[in-house]
Amino acid sequence: xxxLQIESLLGASVYVPYVDYLRNGKxxxxxxxxxxxxxxxxxxxxxxxPALVGxxxxxxxxxADFNPNNDAYAPIASNPxxxxxxxxxxxxxxxxxxxxxxxxxxxxxxxxxxTPLYTAKTFHTLINQPQILNNGLLCQRNxxxxxxxxxxxxxRTGNVTVYGPPAGALPSKLAGRYVGQGGYxxxxxxxGYTQESCASAAAKTDPKAxx
Length: 211
Description:
This protein has 211 residues and is mainly β. The chain is built from 3 helices and 12 strands, in the order E-E-H-E-E-E-E-H-E-E-E-E-E-E-H. Helix content is 11%, strand content 37%.
């Protein structure tokens, strides 16, 4: 038996930004309500072990089914200028014979815009806030850098549908359709760090990731 090999994983998160965890009125953190990971090309079960490991490390992660299942988003066939992405939480996987239980978590439909609601720097700031781990005691920095030539940043506008229980796995207070929201897409490089105190994570935030 050879070592466990995972070809690739897709990921998505729903989180609340600008959490005043230190209660000083100036240091922003993000708190993830749900994190999702899934294998590419329908291999959802490949995400089971990473999800369990993440849970032990203080990050709540759920196995999910992504559409498209080999990319972040895909154009609509009838309107190539509009892109979609969908995430379903995998509760009972059964890819061989079925049935499977995969309630909708959320989906997106968006396109590029010449009149964006926010700037790229705003999204860089949001994405790179230190994350409060689900144990509520520690934080983690996962900075994303978008300064490579292949980043291809695009400002977007579109609609988001969030499904609450029993249809989906997110809290009922978040359920609904959010129309005309601002968005951002780009290829970036993520550097992960180990868990640390939230004060330390905030102090060590790299200003270059916020540019």
